[in-house]
Amino acid sequence: MSILRDNVNGGAAELRRLIKKSVVTVPGVFNGISALLAQDAGFMALYLSGSGVAGKAGLPDLGITTLTEIAEEARKIVAVSRLPLIVDIDTGFGETLNVIRAVRTLESAGVAAVHIEDQEIPKKCGHLSGKRIVAEEEMVRKLRAAASAKRSDDFIIIARTDARAVEGLDASIERAKGYIEAGADAIFPEAMESRAEFAFFAKKVKTLLVANMTEFGKSPLLNAAELGKMGYKIVLFPLTGFRASLLSMKEAYSQLCREGTQKHMMDKLMTREEFYNIISYKEYEDEDNDFHDA
Questions:
Q1: What is the CATH number assigned to the segment(s) 7-244?
Q2: HSE-up (13 A, CA, CB side) for residue 147
Q3: Which of 9, 127, 154, 212 is catalytic?
């Protein structure tokens, strides 16, 4: 395979195809190399969370990252991975015109789907207390704008509702139904608090559903297969890889600072050969040689 010419991202059409087959387990990635690691592990789709982009920059997840930052990271991931990418666009970076620009920018970048939430700005992580949500009419306007902006019918607009923690489960269900009417292709109910709540929501809202299995939050950590049986077709694990990498780096830096050498942690480091295999170093080199040998 020619890495530069043939490693084409599957995009929205591929994500639609996967969803029709079975529940899709989607790990969070935060840059190109994490995307390649997830792809190498066997995943079929990827997720870029706003918290991951903010965290990578050393910032809190309070909606202070910009469309430019999100789009730049998304482009880098799509450029090296063939897997369809779902992107968190927070509250849409503003009002309806901002939402339209965000959808057009991300779709042009090769992203397969985006999700937009109904929180007020500044938003919070969906599993923290003190969230505030906008009026349903405001979110409906944003979703209508998002649906009008997409160029391909395959591109997926996901409406995330944070109403469960603010107005209750029944309110989140009613909002979801209104969001579907406004043009959302899928619904993402955030911060469900029990297995029973996930099941009840799926019973009442008949559309493509997204479940969030983030760690240390309000939701129980359910298996993707179990959620699939309830009716959820996309199961996100937004920060599992990011958190694992942070702990590994923290431990490595502490030991390196303490000992002044890495020789006692070599068994915990990825080898040069393994890293080169992941980034297809030899294939790039061979491709270059093909032109020099011609």
A1: 3.20.20.60
A2: 16
A3: 212
